[in-house]
Amino acid sequence: MAASASTESKQKASMNKAFPNERLWLSLLEHAKSIPEPVLRDNTLDVDVSLSRLVVDVAHMRQVLLDSLPPSLFDNDRTGLISESRPYIGLLVSPNYEFFVGCLAILALGGAIVVLQTENLAMGEFQILKECKASEVVLGKQQVGYCDEIKRLGQLHEHPIHAIPLVTMCDNTETPSADGFYIDQEMTIPSERPSFVMKTTGTTGTARNVVHCRWYWNRTVQASPDDHIILETFGLITPFVAIMLRVLNGSKGEVLSTSPGPEAIWERLKEGSVTNFTCYSWCWEQLARYYQEHLSALPSQERARYVRGAQALKWAYIVGSPSPPWLHAFWKETFGCRLQVGYSATELGVITLATTVDGPYIEVHSRPFAKPQPCLSGSIGKPLPGMGVKLSGGDHGEILVKTPCLFTHYLGDPVRTKAVFDDEGYFRTGDAAHLEDGQYVFDGRIGSDILDVSTGQICFPRLEHKLTNIPYVSEAYMLRIQTASPGEGYQLGVLVRFKDHSHPASLGQSSGEHLEEFKAQLSEALRPHEPPVSIRLLHEGEEIPRTFNMKPFRRIIVEHFFAPQI
């Protein structure tokens, strides 16, 4: 009887072209019918996609899932929605149009997306599927080769998994229509139901699986048809979803080629139509260095095209990790533009604090300029409307946040979930900050970015910003290194890269000559603290380990570059 009811539900969902009664689908169908032209350019797949095509692709992929999933996964309620007791479906696709289709097809079933990464599939991510009782994984075109590996892992873990290839109409030249699709008023899904599972970076300990509810996809977003947003395809899941929602609401988006690099991004900016770009600090630094080393010496008329392209950006956001002051100063000095900093976390779901284009700046020396330039110094701005933010110590301490999109729990870890919320329901982020002139100033990650010494605390991000402001310093990373006797605590490790002696900022000096000067400047920057210090130079060809969102992976950096103190 249950199987028969499920079959009837499947037919109803397909024949009536019905979508759930949620803001997400209301907005998508409305804009699909009012905006016929393409809104998404995907360079990885070489396709231009309209919202109508997206609607048809999502409906088609939903039907593929309905035909592939066992009837036992569906409730006997004639809605065609997957059972709330087992909503999880794995998604292993590239961060491009396939991500759009895969996410929406699963959501249209009332399902919850479990985001997987190929590089971690055999190292624990398969265990997520077993833990959440997921029996299916949707695979993108580039991931279908993992079918045998998924089958092998399923047998190894005694948890069979059915791989389902993702299907789109990208190769179909016909113009699809969204006519006939509608919202089924009876197809309601509780807002607290799971919808999305993402893994944290695990920079300070065990990586955890964060579960977001349906509200994550049904929040209000600001979108304009005049916006043209480029998406860099390197692991930016939370910002990618935020931008995806803006495209679903009428903004234009463009997926760049996989790991495009600074040259490709600059060539796209040069065209002048891009208005929004969000990326890691590391990416913005690469863009700045590429301009300094390759574009600044171009003839003025040719260089002006790149300058105008940068100036066309209305929203230039840095996310993921603190940004050095010289980067803001470079952008301001060179293009007359101000980069904005957004603060978020996997658990928060959205940017909760942000700087503004008219926020306070301080005077610093910008590389490679000799004169002081206006620049942010570690500020992550102020809370955005609707966001609750406080510090554990009043004007300093751990950042605690409450947002409408706050995660509901860690998968399979109720003890840890309870521990990370205070009595008022604020999430303990594990990041430290202090208030300065009404702005929240980032101090670092508690447990990895702050070193306690007898004279106080050394905040690594702030110290790194000071050191990378030295003209001949290219990179600098502060680390906590265990002393020879574990009971004696930690000493300060400094990993630094000097610019090549041929670089103008090096003044022709060698690394050895710079090292003695650097030691003196480091000592000055550390005052009044005088901790034991171990300095290690980064040589040509050596790169630091980074997390998937390009933060320095300090714990692994210590293992790679500093021998155990025995």
| Alpha-carbon Rg, integer | 25 Å
- CATH names the topology of the largest domain as Rossmann fold
Q: What is the fourth-level CATH superfamily of the largest domain?
A: ANL, N-terminal domain
Number of strands: 29
Portion of residues in beta strands equals 15-25%
Mean pLDDT across residues:
85
Coarse morphology: globular
CATH architecture of the largest domain: 3-Layer(aba) Sandwich
Structure description:
The protein has 566 residues and is of the alpha/beta class. The chain has three domains: 2-216, Rossmann fold; 228-445, Rossmann fold, CATH 3.40.50; 450-561, GMP Synthetase, Chain A, domain 3 (2-Layer Sandwich). Helix content is 30%, strand content 24%. It contains 15 helices and 29 strands. It has a 13-stranded mixed beta sheet with strand order 3-2-12-11-13-14-15-16-19-24-23-21-20. Strands 7-6-4-5-9-10-22 form a seven-stranded mixed beta sheet, sandwiched between helices. Strand 20 (388-391) and strand 21 (396-402) form a beta hairpin. Helix 2 packs across helix 3 (51-68), helix 8 (261-270) crosses helix 9 (281-295) and helix 8 crosses helix 10 (300-311). It is globular. The relative contact order is 0.08.
